[in-house]
TrEMBL record:
Stated name of the protein: tRNA-specific 2-thiouridylase MnmA
Principal subcellular localization: cytoplasm
Record EC number: 2.8.1.13
Catalytic site: 118 (nucleophile), 217 (cysteine persulfide intermediate)
Native source organism of the sequence: Streptantibioticus cattleyicolor (strain ATCC 35852 / DSM 46488 / JCM 4925 / NBRC 14057 / NRRL 8057) (Streptomyces cattleya)
Family in the record: Belongs to the MnmA/TRMU family.
Gene Ontology, cellular component aspect: cytoplasm
Chain positions covered by the region annotation Interaction with tRNA: 165-167
Domain tRNA-specific 2-thiouridylase MnmA-like C-terminal: 301-372
Length: 384
């Protein structure tokens, strides 16, 4: 299955003609992106990233993007487009930088986003570095985001023209150098998934009707808690309210996220009869604290390891922030300070968990992102 690329493609560089490496997952978006890049006159080579050491022959439902079936779908699409195609084995790098990071973050009581980590460490680090070393000018993906080139030649990352499909949040980890070598052919036009599928069908791409992948690609059955239990084992702990009263037990604090309501298995109702939510996860004593929804109100946060899509802000400024892949924009004031970022919300927000990414926007432009380390709540949570 694995084959190493023997060298960079040959061909003249005429005007804006670029040597492009198209990352092809086997899905419809990346196939159409590669086709558009080729149609634009670029010298395109397709590559499928083998990210699983033991890929399944067939996907489970619509989940996953690393199976043998996906590799074959990508190869067939490349054949139709008429571009060379290779498979690169990045399974070990993916295991270390994405899967192990995911497990370790949950074990520490945090909630990671593996898609951001994959974009940062795999698609626009390992893959891009290898592509540049082989003489390519750009890496092309099927992400819905837009790159704007300024008069001075610098590049900015912006939201996709179609806000319903925008994926700029998971690309907020890209720095200026990576943006200089990125290409997102799907982000410049207002489109829908139905139109992309129709375009794929017109182009003769068999993936036109292929289901989208969902959830986490390396957890094929979608059972995140089961995956973590197999990796971390089970350990019974207490579920308590904010007064410390024991309400129930669990099999591992890693199975919970801040703001979670379902699956708490608390036998006794709250005194006020209202639902309770996860407020805190303590891996040290394996305790999960629950309480009312209003106790989730966050007014500020501190984030670490900021990554800027261009020059970092010189001081405090007013922005909007997105806190999850499909979350809404919220107005904030943000101030970078060395390796930290302080974000203050104009109005309290809920469901903010350490380990998640906060991505800052100036209008549609992505300013940068950072990993949430701590949150500040509006007031101490009442008991219950």
């Amino acid at each position: 299955m694995m084959s190493e690329f023997p060298g960079a493609p040959t061909g003249p560089r005429n005007g804006s003609r670029l040597r492009v490496l198209a990352a092809m997952s086997g899905g419809v978006d990346s196939a159409v992106a590669a086709a558009r890049a080729a149609e634009a006159g670029h010298d395109v080579t397709g590559v499928h990233l083998a990210l699983s050491a033991n890929p399944q022959s067939f996907r489970t439902g619509a989940r996953g993007c690393c199976t043998i079936e996906d590799s074959r779908d990508a190869r067939r699409a490349a054949d139709v487009i008429g571009i060379p195609f290779y498979v690169w084995d990045l399974a070990e790098r993916f295991r270390e930088d994405v899967v192990e990071d995911f497990v370790n973050e949950y074990a520490a009581g945090r909630t990671p986003n593996p898609c951001l980590r994959c974009n940062e460490k795999i698609k626009f680090a390992a893959l891009l570095d290898k592509a540049i070393a082989l003489g390519f000018d750009a890496v092309c993906t099927g992400h819905y985001a837009k790159i704007v080139t300024r008069p001075d030649g610098s590049r900015e990352l912006h939201r996709a023209s179609d806000m319903a499909k925008d994926q700029s949040y998971v690309l907020g980890v890209l720095d200026e150098r990576q943006l200089a070598h990125a290409m997102f052919p799907l982000g410049d036009t207002v489109t829908t998934k139905e139109k992309i599928r129709a375009e794929a069908e017109r182009r003769g791409l068999a993936v036109a009707k292929k289901p989208d992948s969902h959830d986490i690609c390396f957890i094929a059955d979608g059972d995140t808690q089961g995956f973590l239990a197999r990796r971390l084992g089970t350990a019974e702990g207490d579920i308590v309210d904010t007064s410390g009263a024991r309400l129930g037990t669990h099999n591992g604090a890693y199975g919970f996220t801040i703001g979670q309501r379902k699956g708490l298995r608390i036998g006794t109702p709250a005194p006020d009869g209202k639902p309770r939510y996860v407020l805190d996860i303590s891996p040290v004593d394996n305790t999960v604290t629950v309480g009312p929804a209003e106790a989730l109100d966050v007014v500020a946060l501190t984030a670490i390891r900021p990554r800027w899509c261009g020059a970092p802000p010189a001081g405090p400024g007013h922005y909007t922030a997105q806190l999850r892949a499909h979350g809404d924009d919220v107005p904030v004031t943000a101030e970078p300070s060395g390796d930290e970022l302080r974000v203050t919300f104009a109005a309290p927000v809920r469901g903010v968990a350490p380990g998640q990414a906060v991505v800052l926007y100036d209008g549609t432009r992505v300013v940068g992102s950072a990993t949430i380390a701590a949150t500040e709540r509006r007031s101490p949570a009442p008991a219950g």
